[in-house]
Amino acid sequence: MQTSQPSSSRQLHLEGAFAAALAVADPKKIVPEYLAKIFPKGKVPQGRCLVVGAGKASAAMASALESYAKSHWPDTSIDGLVITRYGHASPTQQIKILEAGHPVPDQAGMDGAAEVLRLVSTLQPGDTLIALVSGGGSSLLTLPQPGITIDDMRKTTEALLNSGAPIEEMNIVRKHLSAILGGNLARAALSRGAQVEALLISDVTGDHPADIASGPCAADYSSYGDALQIFAKYHLDERSIPGSVLTHLQKGLAGEIPETLKQADIDQHCYPLRNHVIATAHRSLEAAAQYCKGLGYTAIILGDTITGEAKDVGLVHAGIARELAHHASWGKLPVALISGGECTVTLPPGTQGRGGRCSEFLLSLFAATSDLKTLSAIAADTDGIDGSEKNAGAWFTPELRLHAQEKDLRASRYQQAHDCYGFFAELNALVHTGPTLTNVNDFRMILID
Question: Which of 24, 12, 27 is nearest to 288 (CA)?
Answer without folding.
Answer: 24
